[in-house]
Amino acid sequence: MIWPFNKFRKQIARIEVNGAIAGATRKRVLEALKTVEEKRFPALLLRIDSPGGTVGDSQEIYSALKRLREKVKIVASFGNISASGGVYIGMGAEHIVANPGTITGSIGVILRGNNLERLLEKVGVSFKVIKSGPYKDILAFDRELTEPEKDILQQLIDTSYQQFVQTVAEARNLAVDTVKSFADGRIFTGQQALELGVVDRLGTEEDARRWAAELVGLDPEKTQCYTLEERKPLLSRILGESQVTSSLSAGIEWMDFEMSASGLPLWMYRP
Question: Contact, 102 vs 82, CB < 8 A?
């Protein structure tokens, strides 16, 4: 039943995507998108400030946004940085606004492994591996990659890259070859992104909010945003979060991402 005086019909939902995109981000954003649909917000402002992240998590957020925009108008706002996987999830929005100086782009795929073979030799450590097939320990950190392994991983990267390019081409109504001309891992500004057709307008988050309001017939001067965010632990809400605590938390989160994403193909800008 649709209540005639649903207060959320007069507001714009707002969701932030900050930091590296991984499982925790995916879970939080998908839950927030479900709330947007259930409460019948007419529009969503998606604020993205992320260098990207894991491929699968980015794809799931994008797919959820694409489904939601059949019912809700979605405007994405690119913040300081919206690169790689940040760009990918932005493709789930109907319209995109970026600051002129936003760092964006980095459309591509990266996979990193570590080779500690020489270090292990110096300390006298070696591993004995029993495996069911020649590629079961691909990207093992105690040896160099073989040529066949490099070919397998390159094919994996190329397939993921094609998926990225195809999504950008379809979302921005561009030819695949046009997207490939700038989808070589380079970064560019919001101004350049506008010229390339990756974003629709230059402006601030406030400009994006006003546009979202106009798209659904709401007064941009009066329409408020309802931010859907993860509920903080009770102690954090009581004591607040200092600059030191915030920085430490961000460092721990990044280290956790590095460890969990090791050996995975990433849509991520790594300066």
Answer: yes
Distances (CA, A) of 142 to 65, 132, 150, 177, 187: 41, 18, 16, 39, 33
Angle between helices 147-171 and 55-68 (to 10 degrees): 20
> Around Cβ 196, how many Cβ atoms within 10 Å?
18
Question: Token pair for residue 89?
Answer: 């999830």
Residue 77 class from Cβ within 10 Å (0-12 exposed, 13-18 middle, 19+ buried)?
buried
237-271, pLDDT tens digit by residue? 445 555 555 555 555 565 566 656 666 789 899 77
Catalytic residue numbers read: 84, 136
* Dist CA 167 CA 165 (whole Å): 5
Structure tokens at 248: 């430490």
Of 268, 269, 267, 211, the C-alpha closest to 76 is 211
